[in-house]
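Quick check before the chapter quiz. The format below is the same one you will see on the exam, so make sure you can read both the input and the output lines.
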Amino acid sequence: MSNTATKVTGKDLLPIIKKALPANISLVDVTDDFSYKDVFVYDCKISAKNMHVGIIDSQGDMKYVELEDMILIDDEAALIIGSITQKIEDEIRLSLGIDNVSVDYEPYTFLDYRYDIMFVLLVDFSDEDRRDLRIKRKKIAYVQQTGKSKYLN
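Here is the expected output.
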């Protein structure tokens, strides 16, 4: 596997990411709105409609309910997004043969996850410190939450 990602473009990434996403998740490439080198940014929305979540009841039986029929807390939403993020990172590593990729997210839907879950997805090839990337993630989510996101309009 390669350790350089300077040749990776948004056109390379988009089909890989879409392949790893469930059908009810939409995303928009907003990388050009932010000027971070070797970091690709996507505005994402998980539609609660037709999204089924598996729940294990007290007897150990699995049942599926629609996301819009549940009241999620932050940790549950983070688990959903985190599993999707990990799948995307694995798919990028396999498809492009690149080791130095990190995929992370920051939700900007707060308190009410019943209707839709909105978050920014960052695909990072920069090898920057995790702390610096966390700061970028938070800034991007703030910008999206304060009106830049197409999903909030």
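If your answer matched, good. DSSP finds three helices and six strands in the chain.
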